[in-house]
Amino acid sequence: MKTIKLILGIFILCTCVSYAQEAANKYSSSEITDTEIYSHIEYLASPILGGRLKGSKGDVLSQQYLSKQLQSYGCEPKGDTAYMQTIYLRQSSDDKFTADSVKITGRDSSFILNPRDVRLMQISANGTANGQLVFAGYGILSENRNDLLNTEGVEVDIKGKIVILIDVIPDDFYLYEYNLRFCTKLAEKIKSFESRKPAGFIVIRTDRDTSLMITDNSYWYYVNSGIPVINIRRNVVAGIMQSEGYNLDSLQKRINRYGKPNCLPLENSYIAFRDKARRHYIKTTNIAGFIEGSDPELSKEVIVIGAHYDHVGGNGRTSGICYGADDNASGTAAVLEIAQKLSAEKYKLKRSVLVMFFGAEEGGLKGSEYFVNSAEFSRYNIVSMINFDMIGRLRNNELTVYTNLNIPIHDTEFNTFNEGYNLTLKYEASYEGRSDQNSFHYKGIPIIAFFTGLHEDYHTPKDLPGKINRAGAYLITNFGYDIIYHLCTTENPIKK
Ligand SMILES: [Zn+2]
């Protein structure tokens, strides 16, 4: 009711302003208030934002709203354009994203690969690749290792050739989890070969699974490796290598055991394929604002507080707009309120705070992944990351805390913060959360993330502001604030 009155008041007072977002600004209190949390949620989950799908009009309106809020709180803009960090995501425009007519030529025969055994990679570029095959193990080119060396230590010439590489080393197998950073890593590998002028790449799985790679091409992606890249079933490639007298499994085992490169030109095997997929780009952004701490030394340490603001638009399991009040207008509202309060008392903060609203979280955490792989990221000394994704449906006072902190060590600490809130804290391993904290987790940063649990309205048009547990969201915002304030002011940063 209060919100309605405020909006009405503004209509009367000010003839030129009609946006609900102005209401939040004009009567903004630097304290965390239930009314403000709810008014942020109401705006972000309103029909005009249409479910905040990346690249949509509602996405842009959300970005403007969040930038405006950060500006009004006095946060310093940290994007490439004011508060906005621009991200271009690319995806195939074709329904059929396939690599057809892939021709293999061996010593005595040639054949066309079954289209089910092969697919284009999202990181691939348009073009024709035609050349002799070279097996380059894990395809690592670094200061300490060159996977293009043969067993005699001589580098194999790959100019104009097609390089077969295994997608990830066993130690990096976790990259498969939820596609995290996987494509970035693969594209980095491929780009590292650029000066040797290969003609194309074939990627195969690291494990013996005969299916194609887990990472799916339907994801939006921001990396273009600049060269044609296909994924072929491992057993098919193993067959080609076998015809030249090499056993893929034992070769890989030997590389694993001795860590030594074993690059092999397959003298009689050739492949020809073409990437002619049409792809297009959409634009979205992360929003970033900075609150500088006041301690000359500790202010160099940065605590990231984050929430994703995007949602799935009309792409729900059922027809209609998915408003995303809980997912994740709720977390966005919590971060807004916390940022406002921290900014108002920044003279008390020792460490600095980077406030981030991530775009393109839905469908693969792309906004946060983009950030942690950007030059911007390496400029900060980030000591911890606190994420809020879906904190609007508190039930039985049960709050899930995803973290990579050592809970036996930190449990007492959490319980001290919890005094007066009486939340039942349920700890879970960080990556289980499948939200933006994971991008930071894989960079080795201590993370804490809050979540009030799944529900039947998740990703449906029924995730509405009216269903938010307002008292619960208020409680969690304050609980989160207390922890963040502590992290900003304590002498010792939190350790895993
Ligand atoms: Zn979410």
What does this protein structure show overall?
This protein has 13 helices and 17 strands. By secondary structure, it is an alpha/beta fold. The chain has 2 domains: 30-86 and 283-489, Aminopeptidase (3-Layer(aba) Sandwich); 103-275, Glucose Oxidase, domain 1 (3-Layer(bba) Sandwich), CATH 3.50.30.30. Strands 1, 2, 11, 12, 13, 14, 15, 16 and 17 form a 9-stranded mixed beta sheet that branches. Helix 11 (407-418) links the parallel strand 15 and strand 16. The longest helix is centred in the C-terminal third of the chain and has 20 residues, at 325-344. The chain starts with a helix and ends in a 7-residue tail after the last helix. The relative contact order is 0.15. It binds zinc ion. Zinc ion (ZN) is lined by residues 308, 327-328, 361, 389-390, 435.
What is the CATH class of the largest domain? Answer: Alpha Beta
Tell the overall outline.
elongated
Terminal Cα span? 44 Å
Helix/strand/pairing category:
alpha/beta
Classify the beta-strand content into a percent band: 15-25%
Bound heterogens, unique: zinc ion
What are the secondary-structure elements, in order, as H or E?
Answer: HHHHEEEEEEEHEEHHEEEHEHHEEHEHEH
* The CATH homologous superfamily of the largest domain: Zn peptidases
Rounded to an integer, what's the Rg over CA atoms? 25 Å
